[in-house]
């Protein structure tokens, strides 16, 4: 009489195939997460620059075609131009450090005004506006 079931060799073969499939699929899965983080970063950058434009408009009126202006992120948060957290995936401490240490600066590049999110409390030698 023949016994029913799988032999040890068959079970090991199935496990090896599963491990191979997982090993091949893992980089693709990780890449999906990485791209979603990049999109979040792009969306956050775009939002912060839009909020900085509102700040500059309220505080400085129409920005002239010359000059460099800068505002720290904590000024945008405390002035209610943006909401917390800046990065929903980060801890409260990491967001607080970003508020204190990052800024949005603007300068003229030819006839076009450029806005940039950058690390630091000054931009092109100009000290950023702050509500500390």
Summarize this entry quickly.
The protein has 132 residues and is an alpha+beta fold. It has helices at 8-60, 73-78, 92-101; strands spanning 69-72, 102-109, 112-119, 122-123, 126-127.
Walk me through the topology.
Elements: H1 8-60, E1 69-72, H2 73-78, H3 92-101, E2 102-109, E3 112-119, E4 122-123, E5 126-127
Antiparallel strand pairs: 1-2, 2-3, 4-5
What pattern of helices and strands is seen along the backbone? Answer: HEHHEEEE
Biggest sheet record: 3 strands, antiparallel
Strand residue percentage: 15-25%
Rounded to an integer, what's the Rg over CA atoms?
25 Å
Overall number of domains? 1
Helix count?
Answer: 3
Look at the helices and sheets and give the structural class.
Answer: alpha+beta
Distance between termini?
85 Å
Specify the helix fraction band: 40-55%
How would you sum up the global shape? Answer: elongated
Q: Strand order, main sheet: write it out.
A: 1-2-3
As residue ranges, the low-confidence spans are none
Q: Would you report the number of β strands?
A: 5
Mean pLDDT: 79
Can you walk through the features of this model?
The chain starts with 7 loop residues before the first helix and ends in a 5-residue tail after the last strand. The strands form two sheets. Strands 1-2-3 form a three-stranded antiparallel β-sheet. A two-stranded antiparallel ribbon has the order 4-5. The protein is elongated. The chain has one domain (8-127). The chain is built from three helices and five strands; from the N terminus they run H-E-H-H-E-E-E-E. By secondary structure, the chain is α+β, with helices and mostly antiparallel strands.
């Amino acid at each position: 009489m023949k016994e029913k079931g799988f032999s040890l060799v068959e079970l090991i073969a199935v496990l090896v195939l599963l491990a191979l499939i997982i090993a091949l699929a893992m980089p693709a899965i990780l890449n999906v997460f990485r791209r979603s983080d990049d999109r979040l970063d792009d969306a956050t950058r775009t939002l912060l620059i839009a909020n900085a434009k509102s700040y500059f408009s309220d505080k400085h009126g129409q920005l002239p075609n010359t000059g460099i202006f800068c505002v720290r992120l904590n000024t945008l948060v405390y002035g209610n131009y943006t909401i917390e957290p800046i990065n929903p995936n980060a801890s409260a401490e990491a967001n607080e450090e970003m508020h204190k240490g990052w800024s949005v600066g603007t300068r003229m590049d030819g006839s076009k005004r450029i806005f940039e999110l950058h690390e630091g409390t000054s931009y092109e030698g100009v000290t950023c506006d702050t509500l500390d």
